[in-house]
Amino acid sequence: MDYKDYYKALGVERSSSDKEIKAAYRKGARKYHPDINTGPDAEAKFKEISEAYEVLKDPERRAAYDQLGQEPPQGQGQYRPPPDWDSGYSFSEGGPHGDTDFSDFFETLFRRQAGAAPGAGAGRGADSHGKIEITLEDAYRGAERTLSLRSPVVGPNGTVSLQDRKIAVRVPKGIAQGQHIRLAGQGVQGQGGAGDLFLEVSFAPHPVFRAEGKDLFLDLPVTPWEAALGGHVVMPTPDGQVDLSIPKNARSGQKLRLKGKGLPGAPAGNIYATLKIVNPDATTQEARAFFEKMAKEMPFNPRAHFGGVGK
Amino acid sequence: MKKTTLKSDIVDALSLDDLCRFCQADETWVIELVEHGVLEPIGSTRGNWRFVGASIVRAKKAHRLNRDLGVNTAGVALVLDLLEERDAILRRLAQLETV
Fold first, then answer.
1. Do A93 and A114 touch, CB atoms closer than 8 A?
2. Which of B1, B11, B56, B86 to mutate to test the interface with A (most CBs of A within 10 A)?
3. Smallest Cβ distance to B11: which of A165, A180, A219?
4. In this predicted complex, what is the ipTM?
5. pLDDT tens-digit readout, A228-284
6. If we measure between CA atoms, which residue out of A100, A123, A127 comes closest to residue A111?
7. Which residues span the domain enclosing A172?
8. How does pLDDT run across B13-33, given as a tens digit for each residue?
9. CATH number of the domain where residue A258 is located
């Protein structure tokens, strides 16, 4: 396991007061909270500072942690705490609330003595929460995914260890971003049965579509002549290609609706295509001549509404 | 390691009890969120409230914000509204930047 520098994580000194540590944590938590900061590293950073604060806010734990000393020099392999590093300190059962899991470093040092695993009371075990990222295509057709889970398990001698397991999950067809999948009985094991596992679904970024609820949005490039003359263009959907009919004299920015072609369901979502008229570059003599002919023969001033300026 | 595909279902409508369990929160707190308009259940009485779609996601976020940052209900309501507004703007921006 790797040594964690909790002071560095919070950006405070070893000599910092409780007040300073609390302020640093609050500031960092606001900045990196995954519900607020959607950046790719925010969640990891938030976990890091939560874990650091979990230790440093508690005087007993902080003292025990300080006893470990500084990070050992590099090149000595895996970090191992010195024997009896925590003698003389008694910290209460630790633990992040609910669905966060902390580093091996934290689990080994501060959770060993946890009397009972969360939810091991008389009733049903607690629910667990996780996340799953799927593709838009998975949501269209339904899919099967293998998920790696890590959960604390109480051993025969009362110690808690982390156990990895793999489960196969069926992603129901038509699920939308932000919805949850429930896996009954896959949460924490309690004496009265296991809790449920809830997975929050997010979509991997798609090169063409943006999903909003059950609807999909895309920008559809069309040529000036397709826009002017109207007609059919072939367009991709996550479920295969479809023919889209473009009205005559279509404008750039005009939104076309493909009813029922969005995410499946009752009712199914729609696809909204926003037209983007794209000009070909005039790179050849012929192309130039063509544009010049248009300029001559098609009296058109797109700046007419500016009031006489521009032409 | 044995491999069986587990039965799964989409969480689409939760009662007040279900929602409390789902976000590990107590009833009073959920009711407060309803009173602040953060959650909009279907159904006229507490007994037959159904929380669907956006309300489920909002409840979960609200609980995390309250738990992790100590934001009170009025604050949570404001944060969620602003976050939704920001996300809409970010989506719009992403859309304009791809052109």
1. yes
2. B11
3. A180
4. 0.80
5. 999 999 998 988 899 999 999 999 999 999 999 999 988 899 999 999 999 999 899
6. A100
7. 124-203
8. 899 999 998 888 899 999 999
9. 2.60.260.20
